[in-house]
Every structure is written in structure tokens, then in C-alpha cells.
Amino acid sequence: AQSVTQPDIHITVSEGASLELRCNYSYGATPYLFWYVQSPGQGLQLLLKYFSGDTLVQGIKGFEAEFKRSQSSFNLRKPSVHWSDAAEYFCAVGPNFGNEKLTFGTGTRLTIIP
Amino acid sequence: ETGVTQSPTHLIKTRGQQVTLRCSSQSGHNTVSWYQQALGQGPQFIFQYYREEENGRGNFPPRFSGLQFPNYSSELNVNALELDDSALYLCASSSQKRGSSGNTIYFGEGSWLTVV
């Protein structure tokens, strides 16, 4: 069975500081990996996805993520956070045939302090 | 803007009642999935429809049912509502092509259901 672990429930960073959100997955085949962001009371916005190819994936809003098969990880990074990045971040894994049967982690809430 | 719209945005129901939530996908999106997101949790897969037929189901009881229509709209129906059904219900759609992969999945903003 596939699963996703986001070890950090809540992270607080200063505006302008770098950010790394952790994601570990368990999947029996080549995974299809996503990071989504959710602002309070809103739906999910796709930040980036990894299907195959280059293991460093660039996304929207200056985010990137690196797929490391040996560590079963897909950590999200941003070199300099902005106050508007405060939100809930979800990592998800799915079958690599591209359908929507995704398994999500429990999320990491990001707080930005001035 | 994902092109996926859901209605209603908020509703309150009483335990034991039935509810229907609606989703309108982008034109050409032949696949729709529904997710339940309880407060403080990640979304949980309920089921998926592909070309109007159920194409996979998560760990949800039969009182959760769905329909997908030819006009790219879909419904989630929940019977005999329980307090634990209170959650944000998300619709996700994409255009799956046979033999392809890596399709982009678009989420709506969800319907907030409160069961009292």
C-alpha cells in the first residue's frame, strides 16, 4: 500500500529565510509525486510534480523539489520565503499512470514571521 | 483558476439526512475523483469516475456514491449522514488518455459540509 509521511506538522520561518519541507513516501513502483499548497478555506493548488526524468523539479512561486529514490524522499524547498507563502503544504503520491488516485500526507503548516 | 467548480461552497445538514455535492469540470476532462478532507488532515480518496463509470474506490462505505455525466459534471451523494462526515469535499479532474501518463490534475475549491 502506498503512503506518505510529512514528519513536520508545523514549521515557522522568518520572511526571507530558506525553507525545506520534508516528504517521505512508500510506493511499490515508480511513483508519481506532487506538492500541493492550500490556503485557509481554499482548495488545493499544484506547486509541482515529478513523473520521470530530471530529479530536481521546478514549480510555481519559486518552489523546487528533489526526488531521491534511495531515500524515498521528495522534499520541497524555497530559497527565500515570502509572507504570502504561509499556508498548508501537502505531499502526495500516485500511480505513475497519471490518474487521480492520490495518497496525501497529513500536511505541514507553514507560518512566516516578519 | 483551475476550471473546476464545486457547489455548494458551504452547507449544514442534520445527522441521518442525505446530501448531494456537485462538481463541474473543464471541457474534455473525462476523469473525476472525489476526496474527503477532515479538519487538520490530508485529503482521502473516496472514488474515481472515468467516462461515467466508477474506476476505483477508497476505504469509504457504500453510502458514499457518485455519478459522472456526459457534460463533464459529476455528483457525490452521501446518505445517512454521520457527524464524522463533516469535512471539506474536493473534486479533482483531468483528461486521461490511453497509454499516457503524467496528466495534470485540477482541484476545485471544495464544498464544506457540516453535520450536526
Descriptive keywords:
heterodimer, A: 114 residues, mainly beta, six-stranded mixed sheet, four-stranded antiparallel sheet, 50% strand, globular, B: 116 residues, seven-stranded mixed sheet
Would you tell me the structural class of the helices and strands of chain A? mainly beta
Q: Give the integer mean of the pLDDT values of chain B.
A: 90
- Gross morphology of chain B: globular
Helix and strand run of chain A = EEEEEEEEEEEE
Largest interface: A-B, 26 and 33 residues
The percent range for helix content of chain A is: under 10%
Oligomeric category: heterodimer
Structure overview:
The complex is a heterodimer of chains A (114) and B (116). Chain A is built from no helices and twelve strands. In chain A, the strands form three sheets. In chain A, strands 2, 5, 6, 10, 11 and 12 form a six-stranded mixed beta sheet that branches. Chain A has a four-stranded antiparallel beta sheet with strand order 3-9-8-7, with no helix packed on it. Chain A is mostly beta strands and 114 residues long. Chain A starts with a strand and ends with a strand. Chain A is globular. Helix content of chain A is 0%, strand content 50%. Chain B is mainly beta and 116 residues long. Chain B contains no helices and eleven strands. In chain B, strands 2, 4, 5, 6, 9, 10 and 11 form a seven-stranded mixed beta sheet that branches. Chain B starts with a strand and ends with a strand. Classes of the chains: A mainly beta (114), B mainly beta (116). Chains A and B meet through strand 5, strand 6 and strand 11 of A and strand 4, strand 5, strand 9 and strand 10 of B.
